[in-house]
Amino acid sequence: MANKKVNKTKLLERNRDPYHGIKVFIGFFMSIVFIVPIIWMLFVSVKPNGFTTNQPLEWFIPPFTLFNYWNLIAESLIIRWLFNSFIVAVITTILTLIITSLAAFAISKMKFRFRKSIFLFFLIGLMIPGEATIIPLYQIVKSMDMIDTYAGLILPMIASPLGVIILKSFYDGVPKELIESAIMDGCSYFKLYYKIVLPLAKPAMAAICIFTFIGSWNNFLWPYLSTLSETLYTLPVGIPVFNSAYTQAYVLPMTANAVASIPVIIAFFIFEKQIVRGISFTGIKG
C-alpha cells in the first residue's frame, strides 16, 4: 500500500509539472548526444586496420575484428599506461582522503590559535586556478629530484582545498553533545576522529573519493610536464602521443581510445549510485 501511495504521489507531481515533457525530451536528447560518440568509437575500434570510407553507415556494418586490440597491446605501452593511471589515481585518492579528513577534523573540532586563518587559507587556495601554480610546483618537484618518478606524479596532486572545506562543513554538523560526552569518557582526539566522526562522514568521504579519483584519472597537464619516459606516461598523456603517429588513420587511434574508456565506463555502471549521490551531496552540477 505504501508503495502504491508513493507511486501515485509521483504521478501527481509529474502531472502538475507543465514542463515535465520538455525536461524528459531534453534529457533524452542530451543522452543521445553523449552516447552516440561512444557507440561510434566502439564500432570503429573493431573495424579492420586501415579501413576507410566516405559513407558513415559503413562503420556500423561488418566486417569486424578484435585483432586491433591485440595489435595495439603488442605495438604500444597502453597496458603500462593503464597501470600507471590506476596506481596514480588510487594512491592519490587514498592520500587525499587521509590528509583532507585529518585537516578538516583539526580545523572543525580542535581549538588552537589561527584556526580561522588557516581555514581562510584553504578558501583562498580554492579560488586560485591550478594552472597558476604549475611553474612553482614544477620548480619545487625538480629541486627535490622527483621529476619522472611516481612520487612526482602523486604527491603534488594530493592537496585538495575543496575536500577540506566539504569535510569541515560536514564535521561542523556533528552534535557537540556527542563530542563532549566522548571526551568526558576519556576518548582521545584520534579515537574521536577514527571511531566517531569519520564513520559519520562516509557520504562526504565517498563524494571526495569519487571526484578525486576521476580528476586524477583524467589529469593531463601535470603528468605531461612531470614525466619524461614513456614507461611513466598515464593514459591522458600516452594516448595523444600514440595517436599522433596515426594522423590519417581512424581505426587504431579509436581502438586506443576504447581501451582507455572501457574501464571508466565499467566503473561508472558499477558505482553509478555512489557517483550520483556524490554529485547531489556536493551540489556540483555539470
TrEMBL record:
<keyword id="KW-1003">Cell membrane</keyword>
<comment type="similarity">
    <text>Belongs to the binding-protein-dependent transport system permease family.</text>
</comment>
<feature type="transmembrane region" description="Helical">
    <location>
        <begin position="150"/>
        <end position="171"/>
    </location>
</feature>
<keyword id="KW-0472">Membrane</keyword>
<dbReference type="InterPro" id="IPR000515">
    <property type="entry name" value="MetI-like"/>
</dbReference>
<feature type="domain" description="ABC transmembrane type-1">
    <location>
        <begin position="82"/>
        <end position="271"/>
    </location>
</feature>
<feature type="transmembrane region" description="Helical">
    <location>
        <begin position="192"/>
        <end position="214"/>
    </location>
</feature>
<dbReference type="GO" id="GO:0005886">
    <property type="term" value="C:plasma membrane"/>
</dbReference>
<protein>
    <submittedName>
        <fullName>N-acetyl-D-glucosamine ABC transport system</fullName>
    </submittedName>
</protein>
<dbReference type="GO" id="GO:0055085">
    <property type="term" value="P:transmembrane transport"/>
</dbReference>
<feature type="transmembrane region" description="Helical">
    <location>
        <begin position="118"/>
        <end position="138"/>
    </location>
</feature>
<feature type="transmembrane region" description="Helical">
    <location>
        <begin position="21"/>
        <end position="43"/>
    </location>
</feature>
<feature type="transmembrane region" description="Helical">
    <location>
        <begin position="81"/>
        <end position="106"/>
    </location>
</feature>
<keyword id="KW-0813">Transport</keyword>
<keyword id="KW-0812">Transmembrane</keyword>
<feature type="transmembrane region" description="Helical">
    <location>
        <begin position="250"/>
        <end position="271"/>
    </location>
</feature>
<keyword id="KW-1133">Transmembrane helix</keyword>
<dbReference type="InterPro" id="IPR035906">
    <property type="entry name" value="MetI-like_sf"/>
</dbReference>
<dbReference type="Pfam" id="PF00528">
    <property type="entry name" value="BPD_transp_1"/>
</dbReference>
